[in-house]
Amino acid sequence: MTAHTAAPHMAARDMEAPGVRIRDLTVVYKTPSGELPAVRGVDIALAPGTITGVVGESGSGKSTLALSLLNAVQPPGRIAAGSVEIDGLGDVLTLRGEDLRRARGRQVGYVFQAAQNSLNPLKTIGKQLLDLGRSHDVEDLRALVRDAKDLLARMGMDGARVLDSYQHELSGGMRQRVGIMLALVLNAKVVVLDEPTTALDMITQATILRIIREVHEERALTTLVITHDVGAVAEVADSLAVMYGGRVVEHGPVTEVLGDARHPYTQGLIRAIPRLTGDLSLARALPGRPPTLGTLPKQGCVFRERCERRMDVCETDEPMSVNRDGRTVACHATDRHLTLVKRKEFV
Amino acid sequence: MTVIVSPEGAMSPEAGPPGTTRATLRRNFWRGVWRVLRRKPSRMAGVVIVALFALMGVAGPLLYPAQLPRDDDALYAPPSLAHPFGTDFEGTDVLALVVTGARYVLLTGLATAVITVALGTLIGLVAGFHRGRWDTLLMRLTDMNLAIPGLPLLLVLSTVWKFESPLEMGLVLGVLGWGGIARAVRSQTLSLRERGFIEAARGLGLPTRHIIGRELLPSMAPYIAMNMLIAVTGAVYAQVGLFFLGVLPFESSNWGVMLNLAVFNGGALTTPAALPYLMAPLIAILLLTLGIVLIVDAMDEIFNPRLREE
Amino acid sequence: MITGTGITKIFKQRGGVLGAREVPALRGVDFAIAKGGAASFIGESGSGKTTLGRIIAGLETHDAGEIVIDGVPMSPLSHRARQPYFRRVQLIHQDPYSALNPTRTIHQTLEAPLRLRAKQTGRPRSWVDGRAEELLAMVGIDPGYVLPRYPHQLSGGMRQRVVIARALTMDPEVLVADEAVSMIDVSLRLGILALLKDLRERLGVGVLFITHDIATARYVGDDGELYVLYRGQVVERGATEKIIADPVHPYTQSLLSAIPVLHGLERPGAERVVPREMQREGLPDGGCLFARRCPFSTERCESEMPVLGRDGGPGTETEQEHACFHPERRGVIPVGVGE
Hints:
CATH topology of the largest domain in chain A: Rossmann fold
Number of helices of chain A: 12
Number of domains of chain A: 2
Largest interface: B-C, 44 and 51 residues
Largest sheet of chain C: 8 strands, mixed
Structural class of chain A: alpha/beta
CATH architecture of the largest domain in chain C: 3-Layer(aba) Sandwich
CATH class of the largest domain in chain A: Alpha Beta
Distance between the termini of chain C: 39 Å
CATH class of the largest domain in chain C: Alpha Beta
Helix content of chain C: 25-40%
Oligomer: heterotrimer
Number of domains of chain C: 3
Number of strands of chain C: 14
Number of strands of chain A: 12
């Protein structure tokens, strides 16, 4: 990567990657049957300089979680409780108005779901870049354009040509890269990518994932990747959080979570992924269907209806997130299993 | 790998008997309509207003004698308990005129709406579904319809035709006015026919009659219903306007005739005496429009099962 | 039994200063699906796989080549005379959300084609309701729950099952499943794939499975044939498990290399192939379609078009057919940890 000239707006350039701590986050949506939680009591920390993958199916609350990082949950949604602390910025959820707007883009970059379609079709990419710069009061627009070109070149594209193009002149993979460029060009240190590879072809997807990984390392970012595709996350992430029904049910280093899943949902999900190798007869779909806001159980474990290891306690008590050797699991069955093992040791 | 019989969410407690007969569906539909209407007070207000006018149109003339009583001592009388909107130049009660005049206006509106929507929908559907030659032909026809200057034509027609019956009036307005709906329905059809379920129906070899009538039409129902309601207001305006301008012969009493007499005979724009005579039909028209607009708001939810059942 | 030979489709793009431009979507594709068999077509967007599926389902016409259904060639028949044949091929759409009419209950959705079927086969109308329940049970959903409901009340997985049940109303010989699981939640995908495989075995329905995700093809037709399509040309073809385990065409290898590795469960293959990026559109004249992206291309590839065959280099043959001058085995697929 070519060395960036230190423009005034890039003072934050040499900063270390910031950490992000989400604490007890609850986001509710207003529905005819009252306010229902799309995200409930989520505790998750993004270690500085790592890529965290959040995996979940429809209705898991993963996109709501991503929006909360920008304090951008739209009505009828509302952040009901919790905090999102980003180093050097403070609690994002207390920011309002102008401060919040500046934080988005400057500190937190966001690559939208289907970034392929989030560009303005009537303006060239370059124009949109300048709009972005002006709205964030960037003084040296030339430097901004230079940075954008460098970033695009880094991602294997002809920067000058791309900036002169309209959205429809670019392929899906190129648009996705433009989306990443726009999220990073203001030098954001925390980047959220929402479904970065959905609707892309296999080979393009592999390219985008590689670029995400490389840019992440070169620019010392803290990255959050939100997706339904376990494979995409497995390829890039350092740690993996699995969401179900608005909770994080399991969180830990990606190789450990995939290699030795503890939560029954994670285990079932992994068994349900079509793979190139492995015994076909061992693979099976999870029974039941993913919950929606309306069908989430009010009490007890959210996964119990599809769970093969459910117990009486799952009907009534919500399992606590238990942290053990760097891994978090919220499951009664796993808990009991471990405590039983422990007792044996002590007897 | 034999994991077929693990039906997702099967054997739900709410399953119940498969109530799939036509009658059950119809009952569920009307229950849904009621639910949708009750969701907003404004919709109920709209329903009440429109029901009131409908009642006026049906029963209005029965409330009064065929020849409305005249009170020669009270020409252009101001509003009073006996005459809430005063009287006209002959001393006839204005309220009675509004009520008895409603039938003509509403019948015209209804007839116009039915004809515009029926013609427009049929032509739009056929053109959009068959495309090609049919489309070209029908759309040229539509263009011609849109290009017909309505007012001058009506002026010419009125010299030979008396429009005694509101249905005749509705027929003319309807035949003149279907072009817009035909175009809109055609474009809706063109986009709907690319949808998976229409393609599937064709792939299954279902007859065209079924595809147009059972698959396409219900998907456009909210759109068509809205157009129909709005066509009613359009027809009311058009026809009241024609009578007001005095273009059409006064063969019957209706709101347009009242407006015309109030302004040109009573001088309602210059003297306050005839003002109530002018205001009464105006308020009636405004109320009717308001009622219809308030109901239109519910159409989307009524014809979309997802919004209806929630 | 359905076969196709030399299926060719050319799209004419209108407009532009230079007038119409011809874009070949399919370049002479041969295929065959036996009773209860499976043929999987793999390719990226623009490979022509969806167009092929629509042609086989009779929803689109082709410009050259012949489709033979049950021994009857289609091209001499009139449009009308073809319909009964193409009705034996039913398309399952990618999007179960738009494939069902939102204003009709599942009962209504199944009733219409079943009535038609009853008329065609001379069955009484009373047969219809029982058959609807039977079909829904066959695709693994509870008829009592589903029949009175509207599509929006069902999950994506259930909808796709209903779509399959609707396709079965015509007692088809072949189901064309175009990206049938790409819009289904991950945890439910295998259920749909297993259902397709089960229908092959139970009803003897052939499945033409179109996907961009090679791994899913194994779950429908590990015993079937795999076709790898690139820009309208079949570049590799053979037994599914064979090609996945041992691909020889660089494009197939690129596709397989692109599949994310589940670190922790798998280790990446040792020789993953990354194709070059195409800076500019355009194809070599008369050469291999993949030459400009192929990391192994030679001068010959630029000027000569390889045809599908088994030539594995001097004196050898490959098990599968391929369209490459330099077929070579490479370890591209991930290796399971602990295998």
